[in-house]
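TODO from last week: model Peptidase S9 prolyl oligopeptidase catalytic domain-containing protein.
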Amino acid sequence: MGFECKKVLLFSAFFLSGAVIVLIPCIVVIARRSNNCPVQTTTTVTTPPTTIWNASDYQSNSEYYQSLISPRNFDQSDNLRLDRLSSPQFHPTNGKSIIYLRRQYHMPDLRGSTTTLHWLDLETNTTVQLTRPIWGIHDQQFFWVDNNTILFLSNRASTDLRQIFQLTLPSNVSQTADFIDPIQITNYPLNIDNLLVNRQASRLAFSCQVYPNLTIEETADRQMAEKASDRSIYQFDKLFIRHWDEYMTGRRHHPFLVQIARRSNGIFNFSSEPFDVLFSVDSDSPTRPFGDAKVQWSFSATGNSFAYTRQYDETSAVTWTTNLDIWTVNLSVPEHLSVCITCDNLATDTDPSYSPTDDSILVYRSHSIPGYESDQFKVKIYNRSSTTIVVLDNGDRSIQAMTWSRDGQSLYLEIGEEANNVIYYLSNIFTDRSINLLIRNGTSHNVNVHPIDNLTFVFTHDSILEPANIYLYLSNGSSRSLTDHNKVLLAKVKMSNVAEKFSFSGYQNETVWGWHVPPANGTNSSAPLAFLIHGGPQSSWYDAWSYRWNFQSFSSQGYAVIAINFHGSDSYGQNFTDSIIGEYGSLPYEDLKLGLSYALNKFPYINASRAAALGASYGGFMVNWIAGHPEMSVRFKTLICHNGALDTRSKSYSTDELWFNEHDVGNYTPWDNPAVYEEFNPVNHVANTPTSIGRALTLHMIHVRIENIRSIRINSNWTQPMLIIVGAHDYRIPETQGIGTFTALQRRGIPSR
């Protein structure tokens, strides 16, 4: 391609390559397992060849970037080399130290990663890497169960399967000179995918993917037999056939409950047989694709009750309903029966969290509209002895997460608010509730409350200008960063230090917000534009760091970035989010047009003749929609469509989650009301067919020879070059949608890749 779009396409192809899902066979399921593995625990530590520590092959990003002589412009490879920090937890009794997870990548080629446990003394800032970093080994989901004991999941097992491990800390961790080798607690023939430990360290819950009515061992045997038979065909009698990025071939995430005890040597083991809570049920808990035990499971204060979220996978209705329910299990009685506490609500109920002081009370998040996954999440308080209470019933923002104070009287709330993920403190939830905003800027997650001081907590924080770090919030209202693993890397790259919000009059003169990030080299000279369109569509461009669509990856290469949070975006109130229903190609499209004009006028350094529009998922749909509307498409030198829909009606028959399409067109199926699927269908605008052709095609009304119809020139709406990026493992937007876009462009002679 001969003009400025070539630069955009080549850069974007590299930038987005990390987000393209690798092609893998989607029918044949290959399961790894050990041979004749015992179910019971083992304390034997083995170090198989696959997990040998090779110190000469380990280099931190700090060591690599320290060796670079001169600063460079930040690009996507730098972004992927950043350490990723998460899950901070206080010492369980004194709160004087924390442990967190650190994910590192192989330097400089990124051909591998590892996740390890790190300890940090809050008084001296001394940091110790507790577990050995080995490429391909990932520690996760840890629980600090007493002063010196950590239980966690890892694939350090000799079988390469994820199992439960125990790490015993020395009395003086700060003097640790070498890594601490953990002890393997379980040795199952399947991966353990989730882990939750109660406060007393007397019980834990874990999940394995098993077939309904089969044990872990029987599931492993069945998988081995299927593999030996070279079976490559599956039969489906209900939906889902596939969900998000995997085929649903029968195994389910089931929670197993088990009692644990510490032996005389200090090592934990199972003291009862694990109990499959959903043994005969064809359903998942945690739910797919993104549910996890941290938020969807909960032990009560005494550890004698267990709550979990599940959906109803038993019939095909799971694909067109969003009904999730919370179930509880009384562990003090032998039957271990599950009781549904939210079955009167046909919308989503999820994320149960027991009070840390009262077994009869739990909070959870709840929708009120069935079939609407972007409905407002409200927090409800369930009390076995009284009615359920809705917290902050008059608010118009969704509550994304909640964390109890240690005294069981207050909640920390994560809320999306005008493109920030902020933290509120809701005190005295049972009496005169008051709410205070604590963290107002950027994106904050993973609140963990101090064991003694209810108003002190650690959390992760990031922004457009800063990747995630662990922060400490003190009861006096101050906060500070605790980690600097990426300090050297960030000092050796040039990035933009400005990310500003702007607002303009969008559709029907309603206020719409957007982001402007100028080029890292400043605004003194003309700069090309990267016009980013977010997916969802009920999401937003947040003040957040991204390892995929990162504004800095564009701005550091000389682009101005404009990103509009159009009608339908979240964090601006539920009415604004709901406004996109039935309006996929109208309100957001008008906002994008008006936002582009406003930005070009407000930031005159941007070269309007060197603009590219980029979008993924819904953003990819919008790129295809823009391509078919010349009043907008000709404003861009090139378009970039990442997993975007071309034919919305066709997609509605092949996508995974049917509720998504059906609700957003007004609760219609494509056969009940085909017109609503065609109203904003990009495929109808590939060519601008004159009305004379439509009349001529009605041959029984007007006698026109077919040859004459073919001779009429069809003017193409699509004119601009386009890069199409397709993930063949994306079952929300099947790959044929992107292939169809490319086919149309090639057939019409439009430069495309």
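Done. The chain is about 20% helix and 30% strand.
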